[in-house]
Amino acid sequence: MKLVTFLLVAHWLCSLASSQATVELSPSTGNVSVCQGEVQKITCTVNGSQVVAWQYNEESLIYFDAVKTGEDNTTLFNFKLLCHNNVTLISTAVGNVSTLINGSTLECRNTIPDISSSIRQHINFTVKNTIPISYLHVDAVSSDTLLIIWAGADCIQSYDVLINGTNVNTTSGMSLLYNTGGAIGSIDVLVNSVDYYGRAVGNLSTQYQFNTHDFEVKAIVRNNTSIIIAIKDNYINHRPVPLSCELIVSNLTQSSSSMDCLSKRLFIFTNVTEGDVYNYTVTITNVIGSAVKNGSIEIPYSPVVVCPSEVPNSPSTMIPISSGGLHTVHDN
Hints:
- This protein starts with a helix and ends with a strand.
- It is mostly beta strands and 332 residues long.
- It has one helix at 2-20, and strands at 22-26, 30-35, 39-47, 52-56, 60-64, 71-73, 78-84, 88-96, 105-109, 120-128, 135-142, 145-151, 158-163, 166-171, 175-179, 185-194, 200-210, 215-222, 226-233, 244-249, 259-260, 266-269, 277-285, 290-298, 305-306, 319-320, 327-330.
């Protein structure tokens, strides 16, 4: 009778200890996405028990207790017991991720045998493929600094940033501020994606024109009664955006109040005078500096005609002695 009572009490104490035990995993329990080639570390903390046990895919069993300490290995993971006392056991599982663990399960529990009273947590692995960057953007943020931004990558360990063929930075981030050192002109930018095996798996490149704004100005006289001024940007794919655009035409715009041409690039002036010369200046500014184009255009006099009766032996039609119409003057 005493033996039966002792066994019942012992079973009750074991059940009580098991019910008070806790098992925590980091990363958290559940589905975990991992990248090929990266080193994955899982930490298991067991409280209120004297055993910490790992089981991979219900096959390999690794455990630590007061007697079995240190570390142990399987084909895919290295297991270590980091901490052991009367209250807590902390163990880690570390492995290099490969496609072999895709869809597999790693479990940590507080008992060596897999029984119903075991407290357990588990992780399901999904191995992701390596994807290089798919987007690259370059912009000037000051007269000597470029902002380089890239995106679209997954499972990339680092990025090599090359300027004009020279590696200027290796980073795990997704952007870089690059100081040009005052240099201007054409700048070749290439960002290389490097996976967790250290291999280059893809890149994107672009050419950026680190210059003042490039444009043309055309001035046209229409019917001797108006001036048309057209501003045309020379197309360049990547360059600093204009911050301001100013147009001044002598005698038509006040020098202290130039016209804004940042969004409007075609202007018509009708208050012109025949015989007058009009000077124009266009200034477009970006972070690099200002580009200026100027020129002049003269309004010709209207045609003068003479009646046939005033000219001997003339045809019966009017004879123009000077011509007008459209006159085009390009900027200097």
